[in-house]
Amino acid sequence: MIVSNVIAKKRDKGRLTAAEIDFMVQGYALGEIPDYQMAAFLMALYIQGVDREETVNFAESIIASGRKLDLSPVPGVKVDKHSTGGVGDKTTLVLVPLVAAAGVPIAKLSGRSLGHTGGTLDKLESIPGFNVNLSSEELVKQLKDIGMAIAEAGKEIVPADKKIYALRDVTATISSIPLIASSIMGKKVASGADKIVLDVKVGSGAFSKTLEDALELATQLVSVGSALGKEAVAIISDMNQPLGYAVGNSLEVKEAIETLKGTGPKDLEELCLILGSHLIFLGRVSPTLEEARKVAERMIPSGAALKKFTELVEAQGGDPNIINNTELLPRAKIVHEYPAPASGYIYGIETQKVGEAALLLGAGRLEKETPIEHAVGFIFRKKIGDQVQKSEPLVEVHANDEEKIKEALAYLSEAIAISDKKPPRFPLIYKTIV
Questions:
Q1: Strands 334-339 and 377-380: what pairing?
Q2: What is the number of other CB atoms lying within 10 angstroms of the CB of residue 433?
Q3: Is 277 a catalytic residue?
Q4: 4 catalytic, yes or no?
Q5: What distances in angstroms separate CA 3 from CA 12, 23, 41, 46, 173, one per listed residue?
Q6: Does 82 participate in catalysis according to the annotation?
Q7: Most buried of 68, 142, 175, 392 (most Cβ within 10 A)?
Q8: 61, 182, 183, 286: which is the annotated catalytic residue?
């Protein structure tokens, strides 16, 4: 095949064969196709569109570029969960031990901060000593021993996707829904799980700003999963405000621990119970979704989920003392109160701006951080629809630099809208796609 011919075919609205897609994906992964030609190919896909068969073929080629994680030595139905990303989304930290406590093995290959959204691995690394770099052998052993693991995907898992994603990021082709669907499902299938639950975020802090876009993405994810032989369920959940109250690595770990103790934010707990119910049902622990919900609801008050989280921290080298003493987590040098500029109701929160403000404080992708860098972020005192009085503390800002606080406050002042009218509340869950 000739690279320019494949590009021209898609440019002229042609439908690509599996062999043509594989030729481009593998050729780029191996360094045989240069960036400039792959960039042209991605732009042709973005502009002319990708049908379902092409999307499935793209995912299959991404999977074939590396090795698949073999979880067959682990008894039972193995499950996985993926979120499309949000602000304050510490769901994995609560959900994984909850599902494992219910008897369903869950192996979670997670990512780092991307754009304005926080990364699960960065959050876990705020726990002193916590190791996210598990080999395939270590992950399988831990899954057999304690029923769960959260780790970074090794370089041998979908290497083509990592390289292509980096190029999409700098060529304005990220927002192609078929390419997103093939990327996500390619990674999930390569991660070895039998069943998958997808948390598709929608709103001001999500990739999908509209329900229409979120529905399209959720539907494609489930459809591609089915074509690849994996049962998947997509839950469309709200991201028009931060999930819970905390935004920032160690602050979110603390809030996750509080949730596992039964004293956390109700929106975070409820989302984990909904996602957990589906994972427990798919894991064949319960015969119906209703029964699975009852099982999930017992895991937090019984202390079983918290015990499992302790096992996870210990197994991956972290300090388990942080569970009973969260003050051992990294703490910021400065805590600054942002007061409400007016009285009224919290009418809206531009959640992406909140995420961007956290980045200004120094949050985000922290692979070579000092512990104190994990401590920056925000703790919100109010949610949308809550009443507030002028000068009342609205957001607690945790930072290490006075100048960065000023920058972050400018973002917050634009992000939070206060009105004398009470706004309609956003639903936590919009739709479930099976």
A1: unpaired
A2: 19
A3: no
A4: no
A5: 14, 8, 9, 17, 19
A6: yes
A7: 142
A8: 183
Instruction: Classify strands 106-110 and 148-152 as parallel, antiparallel or unpaired.
Output: parallel
pLDDT over threshold 80, residue 169: yes
Catalytic residue among 10, 187, 195, 278: 187
Q: Which of 10, 82, 90, 195 is catalytic?
A: 82
Average pLDDT, integer, range 300-312: 98
Query: Is 168 one of the annotated active-site residues of the chain?
Result: yes
Rounded to the nearest angstrom, the gap between the alpha carbon of residue 318 and the centroid of all alpha carbons in its chain is 21
Domains assigned to the chain: 3-49 (1.20.970.10), 79-323 (3.40.1030.10), 331-419 (3.90.1170.30)
Contact 412, 87 (CB under 8 A): no
Residue written as token pair 């995907």: 153
Give the chain's radius of gyration (CA, Å).
Answer: 22
Q: What letter represents residue 68's amino acid? A: K
**Tokens 């979704």 identify what position?**
289
Which member of 89, 161, 238, 267 is catalytic?
161
The pLDDT score that the predictor gives to residue 364 is 64
Q: Active-site residue 10, yes or no?
A: no
What is the structure's pLDDT at 370? 57
